[in-house]
Amino acid sequence: MCPDSSEIEGLKRKDLLGVLELEKEEIELILNTAVSFKEILERPIKVVPYLRGKTVAFLFFEPSTRTLNSFSLAARRLSCDSVSVSASSSSVLKGETLLDTAKNLEAMKLNFVVVRHSSPGAPHILAKNLTSSVINAGDGSHEHPTQALLDLLTIKEHFAKFEGLKVLIVGDIEHSRVARSDIWGMKKLGMDVSVCGPPTLIPRDIEKMGVRVYYNLKEAIENKDIIYVLRIQKERQKRGLFPSTREYINLYSITEEVLEKYARRDVVIMHPGPVNRGIEIVPSVADGTRSLILPQVTNGVAVRMACFYLLPGGKRDKREERGEG
Do 157 and 243 fall into the same domain? Predict the structure, then answer.
């Protein structure tokens, strides 16, 4: 059943900037609303008029395929108009600041700004200075809240619960905004989270986030329900943080052999993409029966529809609901 605007109050906050600031009840509201929106994605006609007359601006100053297209499709499914701005096509090249770019766009009567930026905190600056609802689509190595929410929806669908599930996040934790958002969300929902990777790719004091740290993959994957694989983010590394790709593959790649020997038979594999096949994960695992990677992509559209719908920028006034606006 699709959401009924008369029954759902929506999120109390203006913006969606990170999972850290979300209450457990807010996470559950987004996930439950996304479940309702998945029905729309199964229909022959996959469009509803919930955000007709609303406009979103996509400010993507880092490369993106899945996230940008997922947000764009979510907006179209809700009948929301959109404009898109990249670093190469904006006045930022002429010296204009990100905030000035956003303010000029908002003057065109926007309701949402979805921003991806290499600087941690960039969405927060926009949120403080704009009346539009700002959604963080990834800020540096800080957070990526909608990725974590779609991950949680995928887990909810597969396991029908969160409490007590054991998750291992493997790879470049140091530079991963996905890892941080996932850890915050998983912990708030009662999951047991561990991380594993080379010591140089594990953030200092990450134990303070309530996670267990491993450096040995074979030991780490024992008795886990979920193995969440991250890619090596060489574009964020200022120097080589491990001797060679070959050594990383030998020690941390998720292969059929490693899973058969050390993991539970019902373990599932997740990955936020893009996948570097043959490095952090072999193709047979990425495409195998254990993999939830493609369901994650599908759930991304539903989760982002829910975020648009629940934030104040998506609220319709009474005149609009009566068809008078």
Answer: yes
Residue 113's alpha-carbon distances to 12, 85, 297, in angstroms, are 17, 11, 22
What six digits make up the tokens of 231? 């890619």
CATH number at residue 93: 3.40.50.1370
**Global pTM?**
0.92
Name, in order, each residue with C-beta under 8 angstroms of 194's C-beta and a sequence gap of 6 or more.
166, 167, 168, 169, 211, 212, 213, 214, 220, 224
Band (pLDDT 50/70/90 cuts) for residue 324 is very low
In a domain, 130, yes or no: yes
Same domain, 204 and 241: yes
Please choose, from the candidates 137, 124, 135, 130, the residue with its C-alpha nearest in 3D space to the C-alpha of residue 103: 130
Which residue segment(s) compose the domain that 248 sits in? 145-294
Residue 187 is encoded by which pair of tokens? 């912990």
* DSSP string computed for 256-324: HHHHHHHS-TT-EEE--S---BTTTB-HHHHTSTTB-HHHHHHHHHHHHHHHHHHSGGGPPPHHHHTT-
Report the domain count for the chain. 2
Could you report the per-residue pLDDT of 70-108, keeping only the tens digit for each? Answer: 999 999 999 999 999 886 655 565 568 899 999 999 999
Q: Is 34 helix (H, G, I), strand (E, B) or coil?
A: helix
